[in-house]
Amino acid sequence: VYGLRTAALRLTNTIGPRMRIKDARQTFVGVWIRQLLQGEPLEVWGGKQLRDFTDVGDAVDAFLLTASDPKTEGQVYNLGGPDVVNLEQLAKLMVEVHGSGRFEVKEFPAERHAIDIGDYYSDFTRIQQQLGWQPRHGLRETIEKTLAFYREHLPHYL
Hints:
Rossmann fold; 3-stranded mixed beta sheet; two-stranded parallel ribbon; globular
């Protein structure tokens, strides 16, 4: 369009330091981080839905790689993380990494269940094969560095 060289990247749950945590506008993980650091229980609705999580640094790498390679013009790539977990497993991992906290698995009310997307995780084979991109950060490492960042900077993000 208009002579611009473009490509599209589809991101799953992109998480890491500096993400929005005061509300769920960007991702529920930000809310969980805030709740965990403020000593509140995490609310896990359903808990069995599968997700993957992309480290923000890995996402930036993919954007730069895609932008710098002419063969990406007109292409669409999925990004994702290396670990697919259900939401209950994610909550357990976050509590474990934090060293304290708790979570409550709640059943969906009918109106909330109707809008839940179910399982959603990405197949990033195409960008891996065509450009050599793959996530470098596992979920645990990303949660560790993200929690460490917000422990130090929490007041600035509330």
